[in-house]
Amino acid sequence: MDVSDLVIFEAVSRHGSMNRAASELNTVQSNVTARIRALEEDLGVNLFQRHPRGVSTTPSGQRILPLVARLTKLLADVRIAARDDGAPHGSLHVGSLETTTALRLSPLLTQFAKTYPDVRLIVSTGTTRKLLDDVINCRIEGAFVAGPVTHPDLCQETVFTEELVLVTSRQIRRMDELKDIADLKTIVFQAGCSYRQRLDSLLTGMGVITARPLEFGSLEAIISCVSAGIGVTLLPKGIVGPAWQDGRIAVHELPQDEGQVETLFVRRRDAFVSSAVTAFLQLARPRASGAPHAS
Amino acid sequence: MDVSDLVIFEAVSRHGSMNRAASELNTVQSNVTARIRALEEDLGVNLFQRHPRGVSTTPSGQRILPLVARLTKLLADVRIAARDDGAPHGSLHVGSLETTTALRLSPLLTQFAKTYPDVRLIVSTGTTRKLLDDVINCRIEGAFVAGPVTHPDLCQETVFTEELVLVTSRQIRRMDELKDIADLKTIVFQAGCSYRQRLDSLLTGMGVITARPLEFGSLEAIISCVSAGIGVTLLPKGIVGPAWQDGRIAVHELPQDEGQVETLFVRRRDAFVSSAVTAFLQLARPRASGAPHAS
DNA sequence: GCAATCAATCGCTATTGGAGATTAATTAAT
DNA sequence: ATTAATTAATCTCCAATAGCGATTGATTGC
């Protein structure tokens, strides 16, 4: 059993087609067919059901799919570990929430880039759900996400604590005015945004019935919509400061227990910890401010 | 980078010799040399320092060694996962303490063998230290060991709780008589036995100075020695029952907090959980008796 | 009925992995 | 000092095979 065969398997499974997998892998279809057949014979199971319009992954194939992802990651880790003599270098791919990126990451990234110029740092943004999925499936090294998180394969540590505030248009002076608004809309990033369910439960707790939430892709768009009175949203206090001072929006603080959200840095428990990761964590950890809880 | 090359690397590293690695792998030395050189070129580092009397693993090699072990395990898991359709089969290699095996495992094993005849169950015995090492390095699926255990790569659950008792010859009627014995010897299994340090700390707590412990390989030998008055030992209460009733030895109960020891079943957190493992855990778990704590 | 798309198959070739013999370097023993 | 033994490196040769290109057969959609 060869790892390259498993990589081919993964590509075929993802595309549902040997032809498309072949072109992705820069090879020919006959080759893909042969490798898959060899793999199937070696394992003694059918990995795909052949249809006239492609293939679909059998339960056997489904079972090994996550293992293949980990296998390729581990193989990459071998390469990294071999060259990693303690001086951080190579590339480091982390994820972050849109809000965390805007509010907290900038100083961290500049300092990291200055201290470790040999590391190619890549940051992708996404929702907590997507980022967790990326970490679990070894697509990124780690990510800043909104807590709490429970997953057996992940380890986490709290790096920031945000105070969430309800953001509305200037017309709304007190929170309980929201009850009087018919057809109140909530504005969130996109599906999987962890602030969204928080906002929903908060509003339901206040007796406010909310309509279907609107989704936007950027912070600026959200704030604009809120400012225009289209709906309300929930954001970290620090991030709405400028817009607040400009008088574009109104900010309503929440009771302590509902307003606190922890930003965690999560990564796979079994991932190889390169020097670059160590260095990044060192910088990201809250310095001399209480005791951060790691698990 | 090929996994087979990494396997060769592991063998060379273990033997400190390409010749010996070659004969273990049923190939020729020239082949091993070529594969190692190819691997080194691929990774861009020297994995071995060549001496006139063999090779020694460089720091780079040391770093990738544990990853290689996990890689081969993962590759084996792929094979297992592909064939594992839910009906437990294949082989299952677990470890157990000598005492746990004698005291608790027999009914579990017979029931498992009866219920799942398609599983080749293999049990090796050893000390807690050795078993943990075996589990961590993927040599066995899981093991029954004495708690507490803290290791980031392991997950554990309590399956039994043993009451440890101090076992002495019949001459000793009360525990404090031990103080009067000059040159008291302790008798334990072997280095790494977890009961050993417990026994040491217990006796030191009683003000008893102990000599160098004697080590034996079997339960029967230990009990014989204790019976003959050569020394004292610490064993689960259940296991000394027969010898106690025969009047060969004396049993002294310990205070609650010092006498309780938990037998945990540990396994790698990132290991593939086959149907066989699931079935085994199902049988091993304490049934309807309090809430076992899993982590 | 024709074009398009899919996987399977066949023959060919370049690559490569492994075997065997040899070499060079060093150590241990005589 | 010489010899024997052990080590890894190197070379050649051969067989296995991975990948390519072209083709076939089956199926779907227009």
Walk me through what this model shows.
The structure is a homodimer of 295-residue chains. Chain A is α/β, with parallel strands linked by helices. Chain A is built from 11 helices and 11 strands. Chain A has 3 domains: 80 residues, Orthogonal Bundle (Arc Repressor Mutant, subunit A), CATH 1.10.10; 96 residues, D-Maltodextrin-Binding Protein, domain 2 (3-Layer(aba) Sandwich); 99 residues, 3-Layer(aba) Sandwich (D-Maltodextrin-Binding Protein, domain 2), CATH 3.40.190.10. The longest helix of chain A has 25 residues. Chains A and B meet through α4 of A and α4 of B. The first copy, chain A, binds a DNA duplex (30 and 30 nucleotides) through α3.
CATH architectural designation of the largest domain in chain A: 3-Layer(aba) Sandwich
The share of residues in helices of chain A is: 40-55%
Structural class of chain A: alpha/beta
Helix-strand pattern of chain A: HHHEEHEHEHEEEHEHEHEHEH
Number of beta strands of chain A: 11
Report the CATH topology name of the largest domain in chain A. Answer: D-Maltodextrin-Binding Protein, domain 2
**Quaternary:** homodimer
Largest sheet of chain A: 7 strands, mixed
Strand content of chain A: 15-25%
Mean pLDDT of chain A: 85
Specify the CATH homologous superfamily of the largest domain in chain A: Periplasmic binding protein-like II
CATH class of the largest domain in chain A: Alpha Beta
Largest interface (C-beta under 8 Å):
A-B, 33 and 33 residues
- Please tell me what the overall shape of chain A is: globular
Using only C-alpha atoms, the radius of gyration of chain A works out to 23 Å
The tally of domains of chain A stands at: 3
